[in-house]
Design the sequence.
């Protein structure tokens, strides 16, 4: 934005604020930077797990820049009653996406040249899971080798990684292989000897990570299938801090009132469309499991046929053939969820949290998925960490994968994480993602 001011043909006029009511150069630059940070979150540009595809990244940068410029112009004109040059806006639209894309390409090249080299202590299921997650994510991480004490594995290879024995110390392995981080992927408790060797690795400035912490830090989820009950004790969950709860409740009330006011005209159109297309109620009421598994009634605009569950409860899918034509549009834009702002005002839900599930499914899933009921330690939400990181799901496997993100949210819950989820939800709605 600062460069745009310098190259503007009106720059000589802008230095004389008495000649024209114009928004100040420094103020516009700072405001544009703030708006750009917000729109970057909306378009997922700060998500390290985004696929590293240049053209899709460039499109996101372009959308981010244009949205930031549009918001800047609206604020300057409608709020501050000042002007900002058209040439300045035009040049900012051109510069911003190119500079953002260029910076990301340089960062990608730098990270590919210097991938973090990992040594995995344990060649079992946890170690292979880490390797698979790295491969699928494209993160700048490289598994160099496994270390395992089991004689039947030593000397073999898993993919292109050798399984080394324990006859040589971890410290020497780290020196020989130029290791940046050791990840402990063993199922049980570490022996005293292994712990002492890990302490020696620390003296080399080699990072030592527990399997669960490594996955949480790099992939923003909790590996549910590989944790034990002790995880909840070590997580040091603080879910009842009075200041956080008060601020979160205040944000919920303000957002619910604003959401109802903003969506009001669209809500009236949706109600009219529902009535014209099919007979039946406009609103759909359903029992869901809330905080501490307490049941409550959730409200939605009806998006399916009246007889959608004549054969009993059934998971909704992304392309559900039970949805009406109007319902498909409502589900795509999430307008069907607007009545849940009433649940938020009643304190049955929050703006951000795990999506509430039906008690029939909760009972079934709790028997099949470890720690499933622990997702009810916080209020359910209109949107959540699982919703922006995992596609629409309708199976036990999908429920397991979403639980990984729900537990991550519960452990790291904060107003900052809530804000990130809300901004990325806006991006998901713009894409039409459910």
Sequence:
């Amino acid at each position: 934005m600062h460069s745009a001011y310098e190259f503007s043909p009106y720059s000589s006029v802008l230095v004389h604020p008495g000649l024209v009511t114009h928004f100040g150069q420094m103020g516009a630059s700072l405001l544009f930077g703030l708006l750009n940070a917000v729109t970057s979150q909306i378009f997922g540009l700060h998500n390290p797990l985004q696929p590293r595809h240049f053209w899709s990244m460039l499109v996101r940068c372009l959308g981010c820049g244009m949205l930031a410029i549009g918001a800047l112009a609206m604020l300057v004109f409608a709020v501050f009653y000042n002007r900002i040059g058209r040439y300045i806006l035009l040049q900012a639209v051109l510069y911003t996406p190119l500079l953002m894309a260029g910076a990301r390409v340089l960062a990608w090249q730098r990270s590919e040249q210097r991938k973090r080299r990992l040594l995995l202590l344990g060649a079992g299921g946890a170690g292979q899971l880490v390797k698979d997650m790295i491969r699928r994510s494209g993160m700048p991480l490289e598994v160099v080798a496994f270390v395992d004490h089991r004689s039947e594995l030593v000397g073999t290879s898993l993919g292109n990684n050798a399984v080394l024995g324990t006859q040589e110390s971890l410290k020497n392995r780290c020196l020989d292989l130029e290791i940046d981080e050791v990840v402990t992927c063993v199922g049980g408790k570490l022996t005293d000897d292994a712990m002492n060797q890990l302490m020696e690795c620390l003296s080399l400035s080699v990072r030592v990570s527990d399997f669960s912490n490594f996955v949480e830090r790099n992939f923003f989820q909790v590996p549910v299938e590989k944790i034990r009950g002790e995880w909840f004790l070590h997580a040091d969950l603080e879910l009842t801090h009075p200041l956080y709860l008060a601020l979160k409740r205040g944000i919920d009330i303000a957002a619910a009132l604003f959401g109802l006011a903003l969506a009001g005209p669209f809500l009236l159109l949706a109600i009219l469309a529902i009535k014209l297309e099919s007979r039946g109620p406009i609103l759909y009421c359903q029992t869901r499991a809330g905080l501490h598994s307490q049941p409550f009634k959730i409200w939605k605009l009806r998006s399916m046929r009246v007889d959608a569950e004549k054969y009993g409860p059934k998971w909704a899918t992304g392309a559900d053939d039970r949805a009406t034509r109007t319902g498909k549009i409502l589900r795509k834009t999430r307008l069907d969820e607007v009545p849940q702002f009433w649940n938020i005002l009643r304190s049955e839900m929050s703006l951000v949290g795990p999506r509430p599930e039906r008690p029939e499914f909760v009972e079934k899933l709790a028997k099949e998925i470890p720690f499933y009921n622990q997702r009810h330690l916080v209020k359910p939400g209109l949107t959540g960490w699982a919703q922006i990181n995992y596609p629409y799901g309708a199976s036990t496997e999908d429920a397991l994968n979403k639980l990984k993100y729900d537990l991550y949210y519960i452990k790291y819950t904060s107003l900052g994480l809530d804000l990130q989820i809300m901004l990325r939800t806006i991006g998901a709605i713009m894409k039409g993602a459910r």
